Amino acid sequence: MPHFIIECSDVLLDKHSSEKIMKKVYEAAISSNLFKPEEIKVRIRPYRNFYGTFSPIEFIHVFGNIMEGRNQVQKNTLSKNIVTGLNQLFPEVSIISMNIRDFDRTGYFNKQMLP
Question: Which of 29, 37, 55, 77 suits 64 as a labelling partner, its CA being 20 to 30 A distant?
Fold first, then answer.
């Protein structure tokens, strides 16, 4: 925990590698001082096909899934830092956004919690 899922148009991978994009999000998450580096997980989902009013077709949206307990200022700062970092990589992309969703501790379970 936390998990950061980057959704983007696949044409952006022609400009920067998926590793470089994920590293930028990872580094911004570390700089927030909200998480231990070994806990941070980052994934990327490039999309070739999408439907709707996408104009321009270049976009990045990051979904941050974190354990509950951070306040609004911490979450807003984290989002701003990640969007700022991605904007440094892609200043020409007009759609760069992020939102954070809290995991509820009472509904969360993973393999390490098994007896």
Answer: 55
The full DSSP string for 14-61 is GTS-HHHHHHHHHHHHHHTTSS-GGG-EEEEEEES---SS-SSS-EEE
Residue 112, in any domain of the structure: no
The answer to whether 65 and 3 have CB atoms below 8 angstroms apart is yes
Rounded to two decimals, the pTM is 0.90
Q: Which two tokens stand for residue 78?
A: 């984290």
Q: Which residue has the tokens 């007896």?
A: 115
Give 23-73 pLDDT, tens digit per residue.
999 999 999 999 999 999 999 999 998 777 666 689 999 999 999 999 999
If one counts the domains in the chain, the total is 1
Query: 């270049």: which residue's tokens?
Result: 58
Which strands make up the sheet holding 59-67, listed edge to edge?
A: 41-47, 3-9, 59-67, 95-103
